[in-house]
Design brief:
The chain contains twelve helices and eleven strands. It is an alpha/beta fold. Strands 1, 2, 3, 4, 5, 6, 7, 8, 9, 10 and 11 form an eleven-stranded mixed beta sheet that branches. Helices cover 33% and strands 18% of the residues. The protein folds into two domains: 175 residues, Periplasmic binding protein-like II (D-Maltodextrin-Binding Protein, domain 2), CATH 3.40.190; 141 residues, D-Maltodextrin-Binding Protein, domain 2 (3-Layer(aba) Sandwich), CATH 3.40.190. InterPro entries: ABC_phos-bd_PstS, PBP_domain, Phosphate-bind_PstS. This is Phosphate-binding protein. Keywords: Phosphate transport, Signal, Transport. Belongs to the PstS family.
Length: 369
């Protein structure tokens, strides 16, 4: 299969709303506080300047919505560069950014390096939950039913055409074209790739034997960089199929995944159900609220192809202003208002639950102490 790499990085304009500081001091952040999560008025009152972050492209719409409102209310300029999860983690460890977004957990060696950079264990907090859609470009077809085994075969290159019996048997009455199946994967180091493979490995272990990682394990495939890249390549290629944050698939056709004997469409509610029904990882701490997602398709009503995107930060910074800015921004992202703002702008992600917010806020409270 011919390799096709697309440099279609999601370029997001930097939002830089500058607040005029008069005799009354820093702009009020009162509108950022609510019963669901404080915006840390005490920390934000002293905060000013610029806050830089980078990482997961899945968060790009949410980050734009968060920083629009946050900057407007605080005067703190937030920059978020959607470089991809792996690059974001690397830049955070190197001290190039104050925070990072990542769709996959920090690896053991990354944790050690992040702790060295921060002077203590870093924060790793789940602030963005979204279903991963299996999206395709087939003329006249907007929705398909597929089980995990068939999805795994498609992305492993074991199914050659869209009218294959394995697909047709699950889609009676659908006019499936005799088109080649063209799987499209992420070319960059991607947490979405790892989350998707984790689903395949859990739900279809006989068909997907590769160990899940941020790097796509099959060589010679059609690929593109960033979420926007795989979406654009799939849109422009009849017969293409990809995996991507559901909020960004647009008009592409999508797959209903077999879950507990029924075919289930993705939704924010179904994605959130997986998170609330899954245990924390064995190495989770009061600073690292990390989940071991149950993706095998056994939980009724819970969409199993989910990414939980984390925000990574230090609890202390050489510059006290950076700590105040990070604390204020993280508290806003975790707040009910922040989660609702992101969900409205993103159109596909699920707000975190109140119980999860309590854990997250307890960790954020450690910043600057």
């Amino acid at each position: 299969m011919m390799n096709l790499s697309v440099k279609a990085r999601a370029s997001v304009a930097v939002v830089a709303l500058t607040a005029l500081l008069g005799a009354c001091g820093t702009p009020s952040v009162g509108s950022l506080s609510n019963s669901g999560g404080s915006a840390a008025a005490s920390g934000a009152a002293a905060a000013k300047g610029t806050l830089n972050g980078s990482g997961a492209s899945s968060q790009v719409n949410a980050q734009q919505a968060w920083r629009d409102t946050f900057t407007k209310n605080t005067g703190i300029r937030v920059n978020y560069d959607s470089t991809g999860s792996g690059t974001g983690r690397q830049q955070f460890i190197a001290g190039q950014v104050a925070f990072a977004g990542t769709d996959s957990l920090l690896k053991e060696d990354e944790l050690a390096k992040a702790a060295e950079r921060c002077g203590s264990e870093p924060l790793e907090l789940p602030l963005y939950i979204s279903p991963i859609a299996v999206a395709f470009n087939l003329p006249g077809v907007k929705e398909l039913n597929l089980d995990a085994e068939t999805i795994a075969k498609i992305f492993a290159g074991k199914i050659a055409t869209w009218n294959d019996p394995a697909i047709a048997a699950q889609n009676e009455g659908v006019n499936l074209p005799d088109l080649p199946v063209i799987p499209v994967n992420r070319a960059d180091d991607s947490g979405t790739t790892k989350n998707f493979q984790q689903y395949l490995a859990q739900a279809a272990p006989k068909e997907w034997t590769a160990k899940p990682s941020d790097v796509w394990p099959i060589k010679g495939t059609q690929s593109a960089e960033q979420t926007s890249g795989v979406i654009e390549l799939t849109k422009s290629t009849e017969g293409a199929v990809t995996y991507a944050d559901a909020s960004q698939v647009g008009e592409l056709g999508t797959v209903k995944v077999k879950v507990a004997g029924e075919y289930l469409a993705y939704s924010p509610e179904a994605a959130a159900k997986i998170v609330d029904g899954s245990p924390l990882t064995k190495d989770a701490t009061d600073r690292r609220v990390t989940f071991d997602l149950k993706r095998d398709g056994s939980v009724a009503g819970a969409y199993p192809i989910v990414l939980v995107s984390y925000l990574v930060a230090c609890t202390s910074y050489p510059n006290a202003g950076d700590a105040a800015n990070v604390k204020s921004y993280f508290e806003y992202m975790a707040s009910k208002e922040g989660q609702e703002v992101a969900a409205k702008a993103d159109g596909g992600n699920a707000p975190i639950s109140d119980s999860l917010r309590e854990k997250v806020n307890a960790a954020i409270a450690l910043i600057g102490k």
